[in-house]
Write a structure and sequence with these properties.
The structure is a single chain. An eleven-stranded mixed beta sheet has the order 1-2-3-4-5-6-7-8-9-10-11. The chain is 7% helix and 57% strand. The protein is globular and about 60 Å long. β9 and β10 form a beta hairpin. By secondary structure, it is mostly beta strands.
Length: 171
């Protein structure tokens, strides 16, 4: 299929369907929506099985601003996501670069999430959450505490900070 809806959605790809009409596989060689600062994906693949969904994404940019206040719907299927984006746009004026994401949802809770990215000043940032039967473990690491705090808490309170590494591990 090839879809172009006057600047609001562009998609090219193919899909396979089960006898009941459910999509079992979809691949996109191009998927863009949200205008010039919206999402632009070069490759997307979704596979559906009895074990849930597996999604792989590679793109120029992903705009998460519309998703931040979203309720997320009522997803009850397990979901695995692997993604790489040149840029992830958080909101106006805040973006991460060279982003790699791995996430696993079991149908009720996110059990594992790992994000590695570059902050606006070039420092590395890693955020991970994992649950393996016990309490969740959260890890936040960066080679610049200053850039991390300026990014996470914009508004100028941390403008005078410079450098310093950060390594937080919590259960």
């Amino acid at each position: 299929f090839d879809i172009n809806l006057e600047g609001s959605l562009t998609a090219a790809g193919n899909a396979a369907f089960a006898p009941n009409g459910d999509v079992t596989r979809a691949s996109f060689s191009r998927l863009a929506f949200g205008g010039p600062n919206g999402t632009s994906i070069r490759f997307a693949q979704m596979n559906r099985s009895d074990k849930g969904f597996e999604i792989q994404l590679v793109g120029d940019r992903l705009s998460v601003d519309p998703l931040i206040n979203s309720t997320g719907g009522d997803m009850k299927q397990p979901l695995g996501i692997g993604a790489r984006f040149d840029r992830i746009l958080i909101d106006e004026g805040r973006e991460l670069k060279d982003v790699a994401l791995q996430a696993r949802y079991d149908g009720s809770l996110w059990r594992a999430v790992k994000v590695a990215a570059k902050l606006p000043g070039g420092a590395s940032l890693e955020v991970a959450m994992q649950e393996t039967g016990g309490p969740r473990t959260v890890v936040i690491k960066s080679d610049s505490a200053a850039q991390s705090l300026k990014f996470a808490l914009p508004g100028g309170a941390f403008d005078s900070l410079d450098g310093g590494a950060i390594d937080i591990r919590a259960n």
